[in-house]
Known about the structure:
alpha/beta; dihydrofolate reductase activity; NAD(P)-bd_dom_sf; seven-stranded parallel β-sheet; oxidoreductase; NADP; one-carbon metabolism
Amino acid sequence: MGNTQQRPILITGGGRRIGLAIAHHFLNLHQPVIVSYRNEYPSIEGLRKAGAVCIQADFSTDEGILAFAEKVKSTTSGLRALIHNASAWLAEKPGTSLSDTLSGMLQIHVNAPYLLNHALLDLLRGHGHAAADIIHFTDYVVERGSDKHIAYAASKAALDNMTRSFARKLAPEVKVNAIAPAMILFNESDDAEYRQQALNKSLMKIAPGEKEVIDLIDYLLTSCYVTGRTFAVDGGRPLR
């Protein structure tokens, strides 16, 4: 990352799972990190103790998104990268509002990245050729759809398309790419039967863990040429 080392990396939804692992990875490299979180977890205090700037945010409204952007701008004059990890996974269920499900998925996966990319643009630009990055987290279901999570899949597909649009808009100063994972790691509550069913859905038959994603992020940040692309981390699952 060269002379851009001291500009922080901003990770949305950095208090749990992959976002948390990414945050600790960069903190271990003495890279400044800012994370957004919605609810206080013990992990947030752990991030603070490790040196991260943790900013509470509510992305369920546009006002909350823009208020978060203002807090970021008051914290730093530049960003090395903006990693859109914040996500939700709502299914269409009997008795739930379809409109609410769709609007909720679009809010977190489309409105939040769209507004933050624009609001924080001045922090990403002005540092040289390919000196900053935006990374969107999409999903392997963008390719194949989902009968139980239609709104979720549609919102991630919109984010995938937005990757290419922002890449066109922000080149050559800012590279914009997407990561499309399938099963990366299990929840502690997942039982053995569920785990085996999930593993059988991919060609590689494993849950690889956060390092697989972190290694890809490191590659994207190091590259001075790759932009506008989506990188599948899915164990060949769409080929099943």
